[in-house]
Specification:
Layout: E1 8-11, H1 18-35, E2 44-47, H2 80-94, H3 112-126, H4 132-137, H5 141-147, H6 171-182, E3 189-198, H7 202-215, E4 221-222, E5 225-226, E6 229-230, E7 233-234, E8 242-245, H8 249-260, E9 272-278, E10 283-290, H9 299-314, H10 328-340, H11 345-355, E11 378-385, H12 387-400, H13 404-421, E12 424-431, E13 448-455, H14 462-477, H15 484-491, E14 504-509, E15 521-528, E16 538-544, E17 551-558, H16 564-583, H17 599-606, H18 619-628
Parallel strand pairs: 1-2, 8-9, 14-16
Antiparallel strand pairs: 3-10, 3-15, 4-7, 5-6, 9-10, 11-17, 12-13, 16-17
Helix pairs in contact: 2-3, 2-5, 7-9, 11-15, 12-13, 12-16, 13-14, 13-16
GO molecular function: catalytic activity; phosphopantetheine binding
InterPro entries: ACP-like_sf, AMP-bd_C_sf, CAT-like_dom_sf, Condensation_dom, PKS_PP-bd, PP-bd_ACP, Ppantetheine_attach_site
Organism: Streptomyces parvus
């Protein structure tokens, strides 16, 4: 598992005893809070005698002392085996040294994804399943230990197996395989880009990329067809790393775009291509991966393992990483077993009941009618929640006993209802799908999609809507193991040119990837390159950097349906409605409004003149005049 990254400042020039220097460092942090945006304030300030330098006189990042994890607020020590086990899980997941029996999981930084991991790990160590809802309802160590003693039957554990011969795909992989056959293109490409400045050893970097593919077998897997069904076969070696030299940023961007648009033949080539671009002042690594082999939660193990392999190769040695507990093919086989042996039948029944009668297609205010055959073309519009809105988002979430994600869900549903989409709003929401401990360190396509159906009937207040959203989401999180593909089979909706069960997706990322660190590297930036594609009508995404600053947003839209200007206005409406809801959460959602600055004046004044002069007489006026003359 990878702890949540923190921003750390190292201070030199402080005098006095260690205690005095630590106190001064803490005061420096408090001063920084008054002059820096929240997301730039260090989580920790550490005093040093001197900064460690490389032989070339540059900062040696690897020699900086690692910050010790913070401790949770003091309180009663855990008592008894159940409390001690849960306290250890809290501390491990939250990156803390220890926690008390009164420690609140969410007050210490927990969120929905970590709650799902906690539920799975607790089931492993305690021997009985713990619903995610129970963690939300009883978030302290003591309360959870008392409530989680009820007996139950956990799912069978994921076990490693033989990787010889043709192997089954996971249901999610199979869906992407068929979509790739029906609509070849780049909609499911993940162009991961790592940009490095400083002294970069190309030979070591190339070898490290090879080490990454050796460690994660899914990156050197092909997906041939056998007897009409897709299979996967692991190759002994990965595709070679390509090297390119460019002279300018413009040339690099052009080449990155061209390389990212090269389609994969999944039947004959691995779903992973690595290209190293060298420029006069930087080195860029394109790790183009098909979604069938990775997801955005794969970034942490990817960067962690690549960084470790590069550092080892710099010394002339192969990396010695801890062995992986399983591979993706083990997960695919395990998931198939859960489905075939009926372990998820209760979850199938839940989704049939929950989604029965849901609208097949949301009535969105599009610029154009939906084409019979989607082109897959799309675009992005970016926006930011200002500091005060982001702070209000977190504050209302804590006050209402929900997560910031649930607040954005309520806001988006309110907006769609206000724009005429109705009061029954199904949204698609990706979940990490990495509840099993052995999957956390793997690159692979584990993400599952839940359909969260929100009832907005009766014009509830925003706070009341949050209660509805919380209930819907917690029920869904406790039935998140059933693959979306099986949910579609269970509901069997009428098929058409739209995505089944939902057309709008909402995402909320709570984490920042672990950094790439190595001797000689002055700076490293990692991004998922934007593409001009779209999988759904709209994907509304938020990224919370967990540092108290602004929350970044982006809307990926289908160019078949929307113009960029329309989506820009949609983003403005969402931020405006959210701001109003945070300021007046006890206001009915219908009174929050969807108009942005300037639109109310246009409607009330420009389009609704109230003067008495009427240049043309009405029909009634004309009739009265005619009657008076006869």
């Amino acid at each position: 598992a990878h702890p949540t990254p923190r921003l750390v400042a190292y201070l030199t020039g402080l005098t006095g005893t260690p205690e005095t220097r630590a106190t001064t460092a803490a005061r420096v942090r408090e001063e920084l809070r008054t002059v820096l945006p929240g997301h730039l304030v260090p989580d920790l300030c550490l005093p040093l005698d001197t900064l460690p330098l490389t032989p070339n006189g540059k900062l040696d990042r690897n020699a900086l002392p690692a910050p010790r994890p913070a401790a949770a607020p003091a309180g009663r020590a855990p008592a008894g085996q159940r409390e001690e086990l849960l306290a250890a899980l809290f501390a491990d997941l939250l990156g803390l040294e220890q926690v008390s029996a009164e420690a609140d999981f969410f007050a210490l930084g927990g969120h929905s994804l970590l709650a799902a991991r906690l539920a799975t790990r607790a089931a492993d160590v305690l021997g009985n399943p713990i619903p995610v809802r129970q963690i939300f309802d009883t978030p302290t160590v003591a309360a959870l230990a008392a409530r989680s003693a009820a007996p139950g039957t956990p799912l069978p554990a994921l076990q490693p197996a033989s990787h010889d011969g043709p192997l089954p795909l996971s249901p999610a992989q199979a869906r992407l395989w068929f979509l790739s056959r029906l609509q070849p293109g780049t909609a499911y490409h993940l162009p991961f880009v790592l940009t490095l400045t400083g002294e970069v050893d190309l030979a070591a970097l190339t070898a490290a990329v090879g080490d990454l593919a050796t460690r994660h077998a899914v990156l050197r897997t092909v997906f041939p067809e056998a007897d009409g069904e897709p299979t996967q076969h692991i190759l002994e070696t990965a595709a070679p790393v390509r090297l390119r030299t460019v002279q300018s940023r413009e040339d690099a961007e052009e080449l990155l775009g061209a390389l990212s648009a090269e389609p994969f033949d999944l039947a004959t080539e691995p779903p992973f291509r690595a290209t190293v671009l060298t420029e006069p002042d930087r080195t860029t690594v394109l790790l183009l991966t098909h979604h069938i082999a990775a997801d955005e939660w794969s970034v942490e193990p990817l960067l962690t393992d690549l960084s470790a392999a590069y550092r080892a190769r710099l010394t002339g040695c192969a990396p010695e990483l801890p062995p992986l507990a399983a591979h993706y093919t083990d997960y695919a086989r395990w998931q198939r077993t859960l489905l075939d042996d009926g372990h998820l039948q209760d979850q199938a029944g839940f989704w049939r009941r929950t989604l029965h009668g849901a609208p097949a297609v949301l009535d969105l205010p599009t610029d154009r009618p939906r084409p019979e055959t989607p082109s897959g073309r799309g675009g992005f519009v970016r926006f930011t929640l200002p500091d005060e809105v982001a702070a209000g988002l977190r504050s209302l979430a804590a006050d209402a006993g929900v997560t910031p994600f649930m607040v954005t869900q309520a806001a988006l549903c309110s907006l769609l209802t206000g724009l005429g989409a109705g009061d029954d709003i199904p949204l698609g929401v990706p979940t990490a799908g990495r509840g099993e401990r052995s999957t956390e360190d793997l690159i692979g396509f584990f993400v599952n999609t839940l359909v969260l159906r929100t009832d907005l009937s009766g014009d509830p207040t925003f706070r009341e809507l949050l209660g509805r959203v919380r209930a819907v989401d917690l029920d869904a999180f406790d039935h998140a193991q059933l693959p979306f593909e099986r949910v579609v089979e269970e509901l069997n909706p009428e098929r058409g040119p739209t995505n089944p069960l939902f057309q709008v997706m909402l995402t909320y990322q709570n984490r920042t990837p672990a950094p790439f660190t190595a001797p000689g590297v002055d700076d490293a930036a990692f991004t998922l390159r934007e593409t001009d594609t779209a999988k759904f009508d709209l994907i509304v995404g938020f990224t919370d950097h967990l540092t108290g600053g602004p929350v970044d947003g982006a809307i990926n839209y289908s160019a078949d349906l929307f113009d960029a200007a329309t989506v820009r206005t949609l983003a403005d409406r969402l931020v405006t409605l959210l701001s109003r809801a945070l300021a007046r959460p006890d206001t009915p959602i219908g009174s929050l409004g969807v108009l942005v600055a300037g639109e109310e004046d246009t409607l009330l004044r420009d389009w609704n003149p109230t003067g008495d002069h009427h240049g043309t007489p009405s029909v009634l006026d004309r009739f009265a005049r005619a009657a008076a003359t006869h």
